[in-house]
Structures
1.
Amino acid sequence: MILILEADLAEQSPVFQQLLTRLKALPDIQFRIHQEQGAEQLLSEIYLIGHTKQLRVEDMEALPGVKQAIRVSREYRMLGRHSGDQRAQGFDYNGVHFGQDNLNVFAGLCAVDTREHVEQMMKALQDNGQVCTRMGAYKPRTSPYAFQGHGKACLPYVFELAGKYGIRVIAMEILHESHMDEIREALEKTGHPTGVMLQIGTRNTQNFELLKAVGRQTEFPVLLKRGFGITLEESLNAAEYLASEGNTKVVFGLRGMKSNLGDPHRNFVDFAQVPTVKRLTRMPVCIDPSHSVGSRDAGPDGIPEVFQVTAEGVVAGANMILVDFHPDPATALVDGPQALLLKELPWFLEDVRLARETYEERVLLAAAQGVGE
Ligand code: PEP
Ligand code: MN
């Protein structure tokens, strides 16, 4: 059961303390406090764990400081959507809103290779009104002999250039908790010119100790990719690990499933589950068309397949797009064949705008039918 408390209730306040005394007296119930300082209010939630069936919602709502009690109706206690659940969804980070009702594009380099390429990429983003990007510094590679990313060595110039070109959020995969410290240190040294969304890749979706470590910090939001060979439920539970440790600023990423049934795509595109994740949880949903399709191939109509699957995801309500671009894909050290060209960026963004407009019209059409009333 989740108790939503009145806004701006400090833990030291007498009301909060009275509530804790009452909760401690409940038999077979443990609890965990979660507080979030929003732009205007301090929001507090208390998660009750254990023999909660014995508790009555009305009794819990009569406790001091409690605004609403929600019986958890399914899994994913913290990130899930429960009946009667009116908690706000989404979060703000470094001036960018992430929610189930909007869309952010993260176009950028799969892997940072040279400073020049980073600068060309960021300049193109600024020229096209973009404030988010992807930049891989730590790369999980199939072969131990393949380029592993420049790691912490590239962070200072990546962050400085981001500041120069007005980039507010960089999605960056980490493979180990020490990478968080390296990122924090580089941001500190460069004077925090940008923000970072920590990405947990598909190979680490069920690396529970990494999830716990990333969940224990709340400075950086997290993009958790779906595991390539596990069920959706297993991946959503992985996201819940982050939240259960304290970090609820989580975006869930679909990136295709490893299956030869999807050939010749790199992965079998799973963007049909965008609305499913939005129905089961309150997380914004990201799609990664580049790692799904894996090539720059275009259909006979001239539309690249990366554009096509992006449109599929956006028309279904996706909230974030993680997409590979490169100023010179032939020299890219990682995933060159799937990177779109910088000159294609305005085209891509316009294509996305059309798909988003269609989604918004579809929402209005559904509302006109009385759906959801
Ligand atoms: C990536 O985004 O660079 C990446 C490696 O993705 P995934 O974890 O989905 O393979
Ligand atoms: Mn890649």
Note: The domain at 93-368 is CATH 3.20.20.70 (TIM Barrel).
2.
Amino acid sequence: MGEKRIYDMIVVGGGPAGYTAALYAVRAGLDTLVLEKFSAGGQMGQTQVIDNYPGFEEGVNGFDLAERMRQQAERFGAKTIYAEVERADLAAFPKALQTSEGKFHARTVVIATGANPRELGVEEEAALVGRGVAYCAACDGMFYKGKTVAVVGGGNTAAEDALLLSRIAKKVIFIHRRDTLRAAKVYRDPLLRMENVEFHWNSRVERLLHQDNLTGAVLRDLNTGKRVSISCDGLFVSIGRKPATELVAGQLILDPGGYIQADETTRTSLPGVFAVGDVRTKPLRQVVTAVADGAVAVQMAEEYLAQLSEI
Ligand code: NAP
């Protein structure tokens, strides 16, 4: 496909930050294209219920909210092309994006690529995805109704996942490399009270056991070095996320955690390139903070475009 036209703004990634940027951009009269790999929503699109996004007193399904954000931006003229961005030349003018659907150009680029689940890094983990290893309890939990599952992690995601799974599965084996949870009290206390949750503290998953599907794991106690085998049908890896920055690595400055270095202005180390949502340095990665970034990025892009037209 590809296009000769030069957009005012190309947004890479159609999650809440990306579509908010698109909404504000088209409403500011900017010719705007969103490039999205699969479907709107990013990580939010895989969340069953979002209870902390204001305005939805009963909570809202993440996929539905994502679709509504897309439709809202498109109502004002934003265009979406489903394409994977393979290469970006962000220092060029106009900025160029090589995608699976051809090449696109823009005066400004908003990076809204989000963050993906972090992997455990044990042997055969990737091969067992879909055959016992999972990264999203809200998406895959129902496959383990009445079965035994393990959850690895110690933060809010792990605690929330374990609580959800404890209501679906017969038994949940919670594995954490420390002796205390990092999770907030609102998740921690109910989790510690669940009768069908068994805790393995100071433990690391050393090996996955399987035939065709996962059958269990070998855990190593980090204090004693002792190993135990557990039996489980599923193992949910809930150990945080890693930013999707492959596209910009070497072009934009990243922080020590690998996130794109950008402050509240969303400006990156390259003029005309903005980073919004979970992919940028920030203290709290939530839908509300992501959408705020989208709005700010457009304000900054307008300032940048105004300077360009003065040259
Ligand atoms: P997180 O807070 O970074 O916690 C990750 C957990 O996984 C930590 O306990 C960490 O252990 C452990 N871990 C990391 N790498 C590991 C490895 N290789 N092997 C074993 N364990 C490992 O991540 P998160 O829980 O996904 O949360 C991410 C952000 O989203 C947080 O800001 C969180 O508050 C937010 N969140 C909010 C909600 C909500 O408000 N409803 C829900 C979910 C997430 P250590 O403790 O040893 O570092």
Note: The mean pLDDT is 95.
